[in-house]
Amino acid sequence: MSPRPGFVLEVDRSTPPTLFWHGEGFRLEKLPVGSRVIYPPEPLAGIKDPRSAIREALDNPTGDSEPLSALLKPNMRVAVCFDDVSLPLPQMQAPDVRQLIIEEVLERLAQAGVEDIRLIAALALHRRMTDSELEHALGKRVYEAAKSAEILTQHDAEDKENLLFIGKTDRGEEVELNKYAATSDLIIYVNINLVSMDGGHKSVATGLASYRSLRHHHNVKTMVHSKSFMDRDNSELHSSNWRMGKLIKDSGIKIYQIETTLNTNTFPSQFAFLQKREWEWGLKDRASFLAVSESLKFTPPWAARKIFQNVKSPYGLTGVHAGEVEAVHRKTLENVYKQQQVDVTGQTDILTIGLPFIGPYNVNSIMNPILVHCLGLGYFFNMYKGAPLVRKGGVVILSHPNRPEFDPTFHPSYIDFFDQVLPESTDPLVIEKKFEERFATDPWYIHLYRHGHAYHGVHPFYMWYWGAHALDHLGGVIILGGDPKTTRRLGYQSASTMADALEIASSIVGRDPSVTHLHSPPLLMANVH
Amino acid sequence: MIGQSLAGKRIFLTGGTGFVGTAFAERVLHNLPDTELVLLVRPGRRATAEDRMRREILNNNCFDTLKEELGKEGFQKQIASRISAVAGDVSKDGLGLDDEGFRILGNCDVAVHSAATVSFDAPLDSAIEVNLLGPSRVAETYRKALKAADHQGKMVSVSTAYVAGSRKGKAFEVSLKDSPLYPDLPWRQEVDAARRMKLDIDSQSRSPEKLKQFREEAQSSYGAAGVALLAQETEKKRVDWVRKQMVKLGQARAQSLGWADAYAYSKALGEIALEENKGDLAVSVVRPSIIESALQLPYPGWIRGFRMAEPIIVSFARGLLGEFPGVPEGTVDVVPVDLVVSAMLAACAIEPSDTMKFYHVASGSVNPLKYGQLVDLVTSFFGENPVLDSKGQPIALPSWKFPGRGRVQGQLKRATKLLSIAESVSTRLPIRSKQLEAAGGLTEKREIAERALGYVELYGAYVETEAIYQVDNLMQLRGLLDEGDLEHFDFDPKQIEWESFVYNVHLPSVVEHSRIKTTYTKKTGPTKRERTLASLLAPSQSLVAFDLENTLIAANVVDSFSYLATSHLDRGDATALALGLLAEAPKLLALDRRDRTDFLRYFYRRYKGADRAQLEQYSWDLFDEYLLKKAFPKGIQRVREHRRAGHKTVLITGALDFIVAPFSPLFDKIVSCEMVVDEDGRLTGEVLKAPPIGENRAAILLECAEEFGIDPSDTIAYADSTSDLPMLEAAGQAVCVNGEARLLQIAKRRGWHSENWEKARGGYPLHLPIGVKR
Fold it and tell me: CA quadruple B632, B636, B637, B639: dihedral positive or negative?
């Protein structure tokens, strides 16, 4: 049976309660009769033999590009750059698709006699990957060989010696990139396109850039005008990256882009119920839901987090394309939409979303309140094409415990952002103007970013800006089941039950509001007509 | 009458810095425009008599009304022309006056002696020197000075109504010698005995046993704070002990003779001695009862110092004092300070007579305030204006049952004992911060209970005194006043309306004075904490020193060692090593408590043979995976706030240099422990220099200040333990972070800023410091 497409359910009296993610746990909520629940399409079938698919992609490039082998010459220098630990979510069961591709790429490089090679994790301002994360992404063989040959590096956006100013776009945006990569004869970029925001020119123009360059598109104005940033053609974030991409190309930097797409087979069998529609839960699904949710009740948050962070997803590869950046990316987007898109008619007054335990920036770590904001109002709110799921002035209800918990190793500047910035203002423009530079240039954060495993000092600001379009658009945000004090600090209202949340929301949007629930997992992209 | 009589006269006043003295000085300046004042003031260590007069007398809010009337310049002009200070001391022969002072005294027309040791728990020796001998010294010196200047004068001496002793029935305004109940006592003998006892007690305090005891006590309250501080504290304990013994002796002697305490006893003997020594000098003695806040002048409710009844009233309002001894029908003899001053001035103004005159300024016989009435007024006042606790909730009032003194004392003693046991236990437990907020509260509660006990012991006798002080002489004196005098100098006790005085004047003044919160006020302006914080972080040329362990991170040298040592071990072996260290913890802790330097030297020997380069490599993992997770984000923020304010920051720690290296961008300088490295690059287990611990830290702080060209007074130190006391004391400002119990107590006493910093929440518990195997 071929996978069923996504669809929109209208809740009636017989509809069972709907499953909501709630951090490291779940809620079952009975939504009002007449509410809509948007279910994602079922996972597409994965490619049976990923290795041969990869080989085929390398040999049959997309767009205006020669096959990889034809681009290689013995004495050239090659930078093999790859997406970092923020993708995919959760981590993929071994072997990671990056491992498969890089193994194949290194094989070709060896065949061509290329010796000057460096592997670069394209971190941008993310934290450095840990040894075990690198090993997981690259596979033990590549990791150990690269490590002992001392060719495994991670992009350092604060290593002034190893940054190269490329120039300015026609809009005056500065482009500054990893010098080693920019001065290589060829950049081979290995991407994973989990959502439609990823990939394309963003891979190099963002992943290998510095703060000087990133600030031209990672800012409030750009984010407010990216409607949404998941929709490449209506995203100012992408337009800026595409301008930079053009400049990079024009400056003579050669990029061979390899993009992959995954299906939404996100959870292993013990969590199978997460991927099913509630009324289709069998006895086994009910039993495992009960077992999981009951045992979570007695598990302290840190232990629950550990359990969930250890989940590795059995993703299947749905596509791999290699060659010229823009052409490759078009194919990739087709694949992403094929898996994730659901047609929805009309906007809603209230949009409800259950937030999971993980987002791009808390792999093996804590989903802190700023990341809750980013995941809810940045990622999920923007999972639309056409028009936002929720109408202008509408309300979003996010379900998450939203505890004031932080990882001091990975997110030190987040702690200070929460303690020092949010009490003063939650307005992205005010925050940007008053605090961004201080955090971005703070030597302590730079020290921890470069030598430890910390996100860059400016990163929490970007997380806040990620929600700027939503804040601009919405009439209110309610966190269901969130820590009230923390929720207030974010500038939102808190509610302990769905009924309360809907009551609060209707004081903003009016009586008898329309309610729509964005069902996840897995991911979906609403195409709103 | 008073105005005319004292016009063009000059009054010499002792005890001007006291409650009555200040009010007296104000009244003269305010209401007797043609009278001058000379104050006898004891110079301070750094302040001249004139400085002290300005600071401690003229700056008092007693003068607010006058300043308002005259304006700033007018007031200064008055001061310049009408009031001056001479340096001297009533406990010294000849009042410690120099020739010029002596000459000035000789030209004064009246000498008013109001200097006294007023506290009920004065040590015997100082009560004797000041209260007993003081009046005679003033009289003798004044007489000689008058003679030398060939001038006429008279003297008014302030005593107390309680010289009458713990007696029942009427007490008259006559010389004690004529009082039937007075024990005929040779006062010189009392002076000699007191002086001798002081020497004896002092010798006792210097015996090896006693000194050992003081040292142990100091150690238990200061811990490993270093030699100098311990010595200082030990000496303080000795002096305190001597003082306490002298208080006990004074009380015992007084009570054996029928007085409530050493104050009344020494004042009584002082009157007798004065009578013997006055010679031909005309002397009046004013004997007030319990002096409380002003009825009218300088303004209703004015009071200086924490007076006798206030601590009790405040303890009651705070719900701490469930009961206070006394009978409801009993009389509380209270008199407002302005009445006392008026009576003194009237005594100054009248014609001198050969026989000594006595005046009771007391309310008991003509306008008594009953104890039961006072309790009702206090209860209803605090019922309407309840005292709020730290959370802003009203405190419920206990109902007073008028029990006997013995029962109350018993209750309070038990409470005090329990509280001090609880407190001493809490200082011995290795607990910090959160739990300690409770312990901090213990100290406060114990202190209040102790104070209340003291007051009940001392003050109880006064409440139980059933003497009724007659005021015939006083009323006769009042008869001499003319219409004009009555406006500013009426001292008739009958004018007091007790209900309105207690309710509208006295209690509001007590509340204001004791700074207790009785009404919920929404916060306006910064709190004290915020102000201190703002001053700590004000941009300036400052040097800020931080301790590391438990000040910035919740980890210690043992953790770090364990982490590094287990970094190359299998999980099982690593756990065993870490557990082994945990098992050793009590021993290590004891060693640490005794001497931190020894502890570090002993502990660091474990690094013997370790490869330094490898340790350096592991230290980033230790930092990232252990120390940062155990760090206090608010602490790290604070360091950086100081840097933003342009301050220099220094880390002073007993931890090893390679362990703290990743913290280096936070500090302008790091002073840490270094270990000797042999030629193979391995550690020898020996520490290179004396570890920066204890007193050493104070020296390092000052050296750093010098290195950065910063004045020692512009230094700030953050630390958590008593072993850091020398550094905290040496710094211009000290901040106690997550203080251990003993340090918190000390910090509270010194008024140091304190902080409670926590680890970031949400991490999984790091019970065992185990490194990641590579």
Answer: positive
Q: Is A50-262 CATH 3.40.50.720?
A: no
* Interface touch B763/A453, C-beta < 8 Å: no
Task: Name beta bridge partners: A62.
Answer: A323
Nearest partner of B551 among B419, B654, B668, judged by Cα: B654
Burial class (CB in 10 A: 0-12, 13-18, 19+), A187: buried
DSSP code, position A185: S
Paired strand residues for B733 = B716
Nearest residue of A to residue B617, measured between CA atoms: A451
Cα–Cα distance for residue pair B368/B331, rounded to 1 Å: 6
Contact at CB, A303 and B623, closer than 8 angstroms: no
Cβ(B265)–Cβ(B136) below 8 Å:
no
Q: Token match 């790859």: residue?
A: A82
Interface confidence (ipTM) of the complex? 0.91
CATH of region A7-40+273-313+341-528: 3.90.226.30
Nearest to A444 among B634, B640, B761 (CB): B640
- The amino acid occupying position A194 is L
Strand partners, A27: A20
Every domain of chain A and the residues it spans? 7-40+273-313+341-528, 50-262
Give the tens place of pLDDT for each residue, B112-167. Answer: 999 877 766 788 998 999 899 999 999 999 999 999 999 989 999 999 988 888 77
Other beta carbons within 10 angstroms of residue B144's beta carbon come to 15
**First-last CA distance in chain A:** 29
Residue A415 is nearest to which of B665, B760, B765, comparing CB atoms?
B760
- B134: three-class secondary structure by DSSP: helix
Query: Which residues of A are less than 8 Å from B625 in CB distance?
Result: 409
Q: Domains in chain B, start-ordered, CATH in brackets? A: 533-755 (3.40.50.1000)
Q: Which residues of A touch B (CB under 8 A)?
A: 301-303, 305-306, 366, 368, 403-409, 412, 415-416, 419-420, 442-444, 447-448, 451-453
Q: What is the CA radius of gyration of chain B?
A: 32
pTM, two decimal places = 0.74
